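Running this now, will post back.
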Amino acid sequence: MKPFFQNARIVGDGIDPEAYHRSDAKRGEHGLAIGRSTLMEFAKCPSRWIRGYQSKDTDSTDWGQLMDTLALSPSAFGERYAVTPDVYPCEPTKSDPRTEKPWNWNAGFCKEWKQNQGSKSCLTPKELGDAQEAIGVLLSNGPVLELIECSKRQVFVVGEYVDAQTGLVIPVKALLDLVPDKSSRDFGPCLADFKTSFTADGQRWARISFERGYHVQAAFHSDLFNAATGEHRETWLNVIQENFPPYEVANPIPMLSLEFLALGRVQYQQALRDYCRCLMSGEWPSYPPTQTVISPFQVVEPEPWMVSVKNAFRETFPSIAPITTDLARVEECDFTP
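Update: finished.
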């Protein structure tokens, strides 16, 4: 397959994700390096993206970042995180002779302590203990441990996309979690990504991957890595661990099919073409309309699986009359109280 990217190269490994995401270029400028997550947010709604939309960090996001550090860059933990003491000092009073109290973010001492940590994320001892427990579970999985140990981690790759229609040259980038040594018997042809999730059930991973664009990430990162190295790695693995106790790990390791990778490739390539057209025209459209538009409205149709659910409902509860959306029948109804 002809490389889709040009001038691709490996910047290094062990890269801090913060450094990877940092950029001096602004949205709408040609010099902004496009990664998979940025491209997917653009593709969902260009108008929203160009006006500054940022997905909000959640507890699950924070947990995933902590686990990434402990699993892939443990030596960087001290640079990225600070662990709170269990207690903070306080002045005794007549009603309360204590000289120490349990850590409380409302206390002035605790607030000042946090400010002194600068950009570090702050963890309680319990939060760190939970994460260490999860890491213990992860590394007790033999294949996962072997994969991590034989891999370079947090590998930063850059390159360029040349758009045939507009002639624009767009910088692109990727940060790969795990790049196994190509001499590895089991993992040499592979690239891999570590995901924390609400489920490690491999049977549900196809839908989760599609909804969250993980197959797009797999194709985008694989193609950029292969362009940078001249290799042909077409096997993409997702190491999946649940983000709650007992921190179950998917076993065996899920591997995306070539068909799934091909689908992701089509999606990211179309998104790059659309992005270049927006850059060239200065027009950033909103969500695409449905296929049926009756100005100034768009018709929302049930998806095929919804029809199946409706039919199953009718078969299970035949005595319950279905709710109609037939306008002619609605007009016949008397809604007078």
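Residues 323-337 have pLDDT under 50 and may be disordered. More later if anyone needs it.
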